[in-house]
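Here is my example:
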Amino acid sequence: MNEYNITEKLMGSSFTLGVVTDDKLFADEMLQAGIAEIKRLELLLSEFVDGSATYAINRLASESPVVVNEECFKLIERAVAISRLTQGDFDITIGPLKKLYQFKNKSFQLPSHSNVRAALQHVGYQKMQLNAAKTSVYFQAKDMKISFAAIGKGYASDRVKKLWLAKGVQSGYVNASGDLNAFGSNAMGEPWKIGIANPDNRNHTLLYLPLNQVSIATSGDYEQYFLHDGTRYSHNLNPHTGLPLTGIKSVSVISPSAELSDALATAVYVKGEKKGIEFINQMPHTHCIIINDQNQLFFSKHLKYHSYEMPISKSYSTVSNVSGIPCDLKKSKINI
């Protein structure tokens, strides 16, 4: 068996698709089908593509209900359901807040309290009115915007996996800028593995996780953070306060669905280490790893953590039992 893969920039991210098979023609066909599916979804969901469902919603839904196709409507419904589940810590209407921040500039300035308060008037999943019978979306506040940035890549990954399974692919993966959705085994017959990067040095891997029929998504500041008056601010925003998040460098969520992992990684980031772990511990078949700003690692209760005796500067670990076998919550601090 051989692994065949392809990499393209899609949805603003680098996607690498891989399949394991002994048939190169079949592999090429599946890889191209996967890329085509992601491109289709990008045209449907991108907020920047004139003619997309998201573009139409953001332009018109404050004036009157906008009818979208069933696929887009169902995704919005699921996003709202996750918002309710997470008590609003995940919210696809956060767009107006993002406009307040210039994260790409070298000089970082926090917006004024009055500007944040004003933007928050246009944020909130509760202000979206969904009509399932008409598959329409209406904003109850002016200047609202939605974005699938925190769930769209996961949805696309799940769609590719579903397409491949229907066509007989036995083993494969979709890697969306480090978020991995994998099934089957690699060309050596071993489980797929993904590394959790050191948030201060992407070239250093802290943890390796074997994945079997699950997906993992990571939300972290990595290079995208700013120091202001001695505080490290993430580019991720709190939809309740409108402010950049602090206290956490990285959150990785493992679940059977890439879409769910994608959204929950954002929600746990907002909740913080204690509430985030407590929340994930109540979710079936769902797990997480958090690295806080003190470089402490926190694991949800169903992850089993093994540490190897190695020099601390080259400390590597692995996590197993992601199938949900109970064990004690482990904490560790690694010099990163």
